Amino acid sequence: MSSHESTEQNGSASHDWPDRYHHIDQVLDKPGPRTDPGFAPGAEVKTFLRDTCKILVIGAGGLGCEILANLALTGFKDIHVIDMDTIDISNLNRQFLFRPKDVGNPKAIVAADYIMKRVPGVVVTPYYGKIQDKDDDYYLQFNLVICGLDSVEARRWINATLVNLVDPENPESLKPLIDGGTEGFKGQSRVILPTVTSCYECSLDMLNKPTAFPICTIANTPRLPEHCIEWASVLEWPKVHGEKKMDTDDPEHIGWLYSVAAARAKEFKIEGVTWSLTQGVVKNIIPAIASTNAIIAASCCNEAFKIATSSAAYLNNYFMLIGTDGVYSFTFEHERRPECPVCGGESVDISISREWTVERLIEMLVEKQDIQIKKPSLSTPDKQIYLQAPPQLEAATRPNLEKKVSDLVPEGGEITITASSLPFSLSLKIQYR
Amino acid sequence: MHDSESQDIETATTVLESQPDSKTRRYDRQLRLWAASGQRALENSRVLLLSGSATSASILKNLVLPGIGHFTILDDSLVTPRDAGNNFFLEGDSSIGKPRAEEVVRLLLELNDQVEGKADLRNVKNVVEEDPEYIKSFTLVIAHNLDLELLRKLSNLLWGSETDPALMVVSSAGFMAEFSIQFYEHCVMESHSDAVPSLRMDKPFSSLLEYTDGLDFQSMDPTDHSHLPYVVILVRALQTWKQSHDGSPPKSYAEKQEFKQHVLDMRLKLDEENFEEAEAQAYRCAIATTVPSEISSLFSHPALSAPLTPTSPPFFLLLAALKKFTEQPPHVLPLTSTLPDMRADTKNYIHLQKLYKKQADDEKTAFKGYLKEVLGGEEGVVEDAMVDTFVKNVHQLKILKGKKWGALDKEKTLLAQELSNAPNHASTHLAMSALLHYHAQSPDTDPTLEQLRTVAHSLVGQDVQLPEEFDVVAGEIARTPTAELPNTAAFLGGMVAQEAIKMITKQYVPITGYCVIDLVETSTAIVG
Fold first, then answer.
1. For the THIF-type NAD/FAD binding fold domain, which residue ranges apply (chain B) (predicted)?
2. Which domains does chain A possess?
3. Beta strands in B4-115 (DSSP E)
């Protein structure tokens, strides 16, 4: 393995100068009042941290840059990082491993090079691509995984993957997952022990619902500048450009949307369509600053350090921060959800009207905050109800959309829901009211 | 940089902006939080850091990235092997032996070429004693892990007058940390709070009343009826309610429920969603529009009873004008022009929005009249942009009262009270203070838990029983009294920079008291 060779070449000993870890060794050389009695201070834990432990960082953006720097300084020396993005100029106000000359280059590679240049002896192995490209064997090689992502879908994927990885016969298969997220002055970090603590999917209902404007408002009664922008991007773009995909990073595309939205706003005498707002609405931009990312990334890395070394108790299991009015934070234990489709195993009881069609049921599933499935396919143990793909099966099952669920599934019967974006299936137990 | 708020309909829709310049694109994600005005404040600020420790460098990183104007690191030490191991803004062992401030400044400046940075290699103690005006020339002074004597001098120095820079005092030991901000007073116009301004539905201004009165709810087209904005519905509903209730709005719980039903009874069809929205907003009618007590309490500020002149702080000139404004009927705050979105067709909504905008403009003109009165007839003293900001945020103004650094530790009863209210977090503060006091007496030794207990008792009083939590947090501090862990440094770096940004931009609300941090249980709290 290449990483093994590089560990030997660049490994800790050759780069460690005397006193390099003076500060950190103070917590590795003796326990504190809240340290697990099993903690063995001294050489062994240092060797594990610096020579053995392999950690995966998912995301090399706002949180990722901070996470990589913190891990490197605390003594993790075999770090892997995955990110599918390239650097944009708007990243530079917080993603401090990148410079203007790096714009357009892959985040994972630039970040890895920077860390290795700055912190002697640390090996960072980048992968410029998607987490979904990697298989179970890849994820099994790590001791810990830290996520600094802005995508719910990617988080659900890695969470489900790590939960599925757990083999009760093999304790090594349980990979602690530390997840951080920020939005403006707010953020959270949490520790997930797959199958032991609540998982990401358990807390899906805590997410804010994304603002969605009803299509009839956009089409007929616009009132806000946002309505005009949605009109331009959702209705006018496909009408004018047909199949051509909108690229929200292309200034020409944003410019077109902005001018179309501004014209509509003028027609309806609506104020406030600007370039910045247009970009904000179509890209769903979330404000992001260095300071919040620093706090949350530090918290994530601190948990990784405590878990890797047992030098102090770790977070159980959720830290929430709001920094707008003073500093408010809340540390609590998020409970597992027995009916969690990923780690719970029990089927979800759902009560619907006998009159509901399959289409109505799908509509409800898409809207349901604790499920959030975009294009669900439905089947029972003995038949397919509706499949989104492939096209032949979609066409074959489409007539079912108008049928009543009660004609297809008996009282107490189960429906299995799958979706291409999710690496798990959800089981619904149907009751009629 | 553009400001979406200040564009009127003509410029917004006839002159199209081109793609923003590279500076605006670089700062886009933060401009959405503090806008061009906050950015300008940052760019005009000068921050002084006392020490080039890992924590100081982390704080500065989060100020350099968003683009403060200038920073200086005052530090006469050379990089030690220990420093080189825990500070990202040193180049590993190759930085050892070089001046620490110079190395850290050089590497921080790579993050943003808009920022000016300077290394000052003088001794902190000497500068505090011999060149106090230099220290006072900054916007903000931040000190990390300074000793007690120096902190006392510094805090005295910057407690001379209200115009002295705020002082942020940061201390850390292993997984434990705390910081506080010393300031006299901090006035915030843009607190970005969740407070919702009144829509005046209970005290409709004349054009709103006229508009509502001109609508014949009964005979209008059913589609138009289902497009009536809830503001109009509620103004009418409250009018008719008052007619049958001796001119009084709904008061008791039962009356409020009845009022909701009254709103729903106005529907022509059961599925009119605008009336459902009106029902959901009906509670607002039961809250009389007055001057909220949080705002009227500001009027008793001593600055308003002293004579105001054009050189008085603009915030107090504006506050004095506000006081005059609210003394006139209808005794309300100036109207905030932003109308929330509501179910309505475009025509109704835009018309209503215009009414609010016109009224808000008229009231702003009246407000400016009072401002002129406050200034004895002089005009143009306060910039129009600031008047706009003040009036727009008038329902969420805040004046924070600060304390001198260390004040809590001198008030034994208060400290003891904090210990009984929040034993865990107050113990963290007490233990951090005990560490500072211990090192003042025995600079080069590490305390035991027992020694920290002894010092803590001397601070809080011998007769006060230390809570059991004290041993836990003080035990943690005794484990690592001088350790500066990279994760703690990074955590503090984010927290302190965040509060510094709030102080500099005068937006959002900074902490008062001590923010204590425990990174074993991963919690923060405010003490004192």
1. 27-142
2. 3-207+289-332 (3.40.50.720), 215-283 (1.10.10.520), 348-432 (3.10.290.20)
3. 46-50, 70-74
